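Objective 1b: paired records.
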Amino acid sequence: MTGSLVLIAGTPSHGPGAHEHRAGMLLLGKCLDAVPGLSVVVHDGGWVPNDDVFEGATAVAIFADGGARHPLLVDDRLATIGRLVEDRGIGLGLIHYAVELPEGNGAERVDSWIGGHYQDRVSCNPIWEARVEPGPDHPVTRGVTPFVTTDEWYFNIAFRAGPDGVPGRRSGRTIPILVAAPSDAVREGPYVHPKGPYPEVIAASGRQEPLMWAHERPDGGRGFGLVGGHFHANWGNDSFRTAALNALVWIAGVDVPTHGVPSTLTAGDLTRNLDPKA
């Protein structure tokens, strides 16, 4: 199977080494260069130069700031992606802050595309050390082994059909790909913003939280959400990077290798293409 993937990197954001959208997407794109049957193009600056870029694309992934600053909320971009997803059935992936869209302004549509979203003042965003485990057997979990990484791991995500893969004729199926159980101290905050804590987050003590999920839409289209990626250095973690690469290949409709997408980084790869920041 062949696929064409468009990677969109947001504008510079946060301090050095954080929210490195351009460097992150260029790194992932470089790792995908050798995947048979997949063509990849990376666009930075927050969007593509024109909609012709989407011609022939089988998937789009966005790594950018979200909330009210989400690139999908500019002009008619949400409608543009909606046509690509709903009419053509392309795949869609959202990474880190890009999984947050406002209620009543994109969140509901994105739920139908990727299965869930970060909901302001329901989901939370502490920076914590997660002991991450792969979820059920799935093409995106191939080659992914347990790992420990500190990141701004969002959790208590608002899922359209539930994070446990409950199938629904209208909503599709959502499958946890990476999961971890925050400690009670993490649940009690403080969170990055707002500081919290939220009673419903504390009440879910001991629960495994999806940090990455895959979504199989009723029309056969695919989507994923990945809440990590705040710290650029974490792309150096082999399992974290493999999960992201597998997901990008999967939403593009290309077969994921049996042992996951292979990739190796050199010492300089993680310092290349970083945004100039004070």
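Objective 1b, second protein:
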Amino acid sequence: MTQKTPDNMPAGNGKPKADASVQQDQALDSLGIVVGEIAHDFNNVLSLIFGYVEMAMSEIPEGERARSDLEHVLAAGDRAKELVARILTFSNRAKLKKTRINARLPVLNALNYLKDRMPPTVALKAKITDQAVSVLGNDTEIQQVVMNLCNNSVQAMPQGGTIEVELNLLDENAAALAGHPSLPKGGYLQLRVKDTGTGMDLATMANIYTPFFTTSRQQGKQEVRAGLGLTTVYNIVTSGNGHIFVDSVVGEGTTFEIYLPLLAEAQAAKAPGASPRATATKRVLFIDDEPAITEMASQILKNNNYQARLFNDGNEALKHFSDHPHDFDIVVTDLIMPSISGSELATRCAAINPNVPVVLTTGFGERISPTSYRQWGVSTLITKPFSIQQLLATLAELTK
């Protein structure tokens, strides 16, 4: 029998714990400072691991033992990334600001990151609208919602299965909204994640947003715990005036549906004197103070038909861009650098040629709001460690 959460209540009665003792808050605050100090370097190391492992895997045929070993390396790297993200999430002392965003890009970034990290027994399918999707939100949080829901689905399919991800624009008369009469009248972004996993009964569904809730299922000798993923999803969605519903059938699978209110589209403004984009090979200015990162980026970009000019010194990169402001289709820069910050470099590049999009890479993505980075002239932000597919998808989206 289908188990569905009622429309007059949040999905599940389990209310995420909101209060903590003063001592716990102080401890998390101190932990956040410590983690913040090491996050930049740690995520640089993870970026190198992900990048070189993915490049090596692309040269090894399926079924080879070496490829399997490298997949285990990526899985271990993902665990390290999730651990840092989890600590940062609970030690974050300031709420992320929400602003008008096109939710399509962070959803695509999340899917590109996930598709090469799915177990071989799990198929990831996507149906994403081609239209811009303007909602009040935060790129980092939207990406986190998609990744957490998909990871939850993977855990529910120990024998494998299929995950379907859809992103749709719904006007106020859409048939999909008729099934949720509690939703206020208006247009919505609909994010739908469906799996063919074990499904849930009503008792389980009542607690899925409770931190560290466990169903006591066993995978091998390990107990399966819900962790913090669905708690985080619930908090992100509801903080953006959104709604989340879950529909599940034991033995058949689970579907999560998220509805975020659409914002009226802003008039597209084209900068005066905009020059046409290059239609052939795209030209990238890439800046990172870590030589190992630029060396890796050089290989990635060359292997994917990009022309790249790379710098480890931000001031040198800025001078070169100032001397050749029309020689590049996109700029990619790290945030924290010794000679000049990525935010200042982005601002000055945008002043020199506002038609060239700027991508900011950083290990502190969860602490930077779109309002802040757009004031710097940055088009989008990629949180380190990032995958090759995530970088390439961002470049393709911004230079098309």
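The longest helix spans residues 22-57. The chain has three domains: 22-91, 96-261, 283-399.
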